[in-house]
Amino acid sequence: MIIDGGSSLNIASQELVEKLNLKTERHPNPFRVAWVNDTSIPVSFRCLVTFLFGKDFEESVWCEVLPIKVSHILLGRPWLFDRKVQHDGYENTYALIHNGRKKILRPMKEVPPIKKSDENAQPKRTDKEYPANARKILDDFSDLWPVELPNELPPMRDIQHAIDLIPGASLPNLPAYRMNPTEHAELKRQVDELLTKGFIRESLSPCGVPAY
């Protein structure tokens, strides 16, 4: 949204009206608007646009519908005059009375650009200092998270767990998702590594499907 004291119109962009499916009506007094490049376009429709300033300042303004690109809504001198808006050029603020209370509209703060992530970026290692009591616990149980996984399965437990199927239930048998060559090569590498270590074995399930 732009507040422009140099504009003689309140304008809603045609793109905004179409995307929000706002209701328009024929302009009671059609006219033409001249652009700075000496061209002119007809103003045939207008629209009542309702919007919010902040959380509790709701405003409804009649706007001419024009194909502008600079902003979705442009509030010009008609709105400034109707609302008796006072402009502070030094602070670039607009003050007006709304429901008996003074409201001050301030410009938006500049949003820093979003940096594009690097797909090949490597995580940075940090030497984090832990409290003394936490450091002792980490040292006592250091074998729980080794740097390299052992090439063997953990020892057998006294109690083994299994997933019991519901009698008569049908197993899911859906086609697998396709992969690109890079993903397929990485999947094959990981599966071959797990097979070599004995962590997994070939599936005997009737619903097993290869990965494509």
From TrEMBL:
InterPro entries: DNA/RNA_pol_sf, Peptidase_aspartic_dom_sf. Transmembrane segments: none annotated. This is Transposon Ty3-I Gag-Pol polyprotein. CDD domains: retropepsin_like (cd00303).
